[in-house]
Design a protein that fits this description.
Blueprint: E1 5-9, E2 14-18, E3 20-23, E4 25-26, H1 31-40, H2 46-62, E5 65-66, E6 73-75, E7 78-80, H3 82-90, H4 95-100, H5 108-121, H6 126-133, H7 136-142, E8 152-153, H8 156-164, E9 168-171
Parallel strand pairs: 3-9, 4-5
Antiparallel strand pairs: 1-2, 6-7, 6-8
Helix pairs in contact: 1-2, 2-5, 2-6, 2-8
Length: 172
């Protein structure tokens, strides 16, 4: 069977790049459970929590795991899942009480991804962590925007390509 390809044109050269087909394994987690995991590690700052969730999400995508179905949005200061940012902001005066009502992260595979990211970045300066999260998928999503205040979805295909380093076709 011949692999699917995508033609890439350049004024001097035309070449064919293979397109990998990926079947994502849906874990269907509550993104707030991932936020709670980092909160319980001492990460109370919404922005830092979001960055750590995002980097964990990308780590899982490397192995074709989709942590949750919530879409990522390219907000002015970085990638965001609206559910997490809204709930944490709405409950900012008592996050401890809020997170009591959120189920614990109990998927060992996901805990491993989250722990790997936490260990790597927990001592990183917030602005450097933010820069790490403002990667190619975020930049590409924000590039066509006319206003700094606009918000746009980060396409899942862009996240998968970034995580795997290759153009990929996602199948259900």
């Amino acid at each position: 069977m011949k692999p699917k390809t995508r033609e890439v044109k350049n004024p001097q050269i035309t070449f064919i790049m293979p397109v990998r087909t990926i079947k994502l394994k849906q874990l269907n987690l509550n993104p707030l459970s991932v936020a709670k995991y980092f909160y319980e590690k001492g990460v109370e700052n919404f922005s830092i929590n979001q960055d750590l969730i995002y980097l964990s999400y990308l780590e899982a995508l490397k192995d074709s795991y989709l942590l949750f179905k919530e879409e990522w949005q390219a907000w002015p200061n970085g990638p965001v899942t609206k559910l997490v940012i809204d709930k944490m902001f709405d409950n900012r005066h008592n996050l401890k009480k809020f997170f009591i009502g959120i189920e614990d992260l109990d998927n060992e595979l996901v805990i491993d991804y989250a722990e790997k990211v936490f260990k790597k970045y927990h001592k990183t300066e917030p602005f450097l962590l933010s820069e790490k999260a403002q990667n190619k998928p975020w930049k590409d999503a924000r590039k066509p925007l006319k206003s700094e205040k606009e918000i746009v979805k980060i396409p899942l295909e862009s996240l998968v390509k970034f995580s795997n380093g290759k153009p990929s076709r996602i199948v259900a």
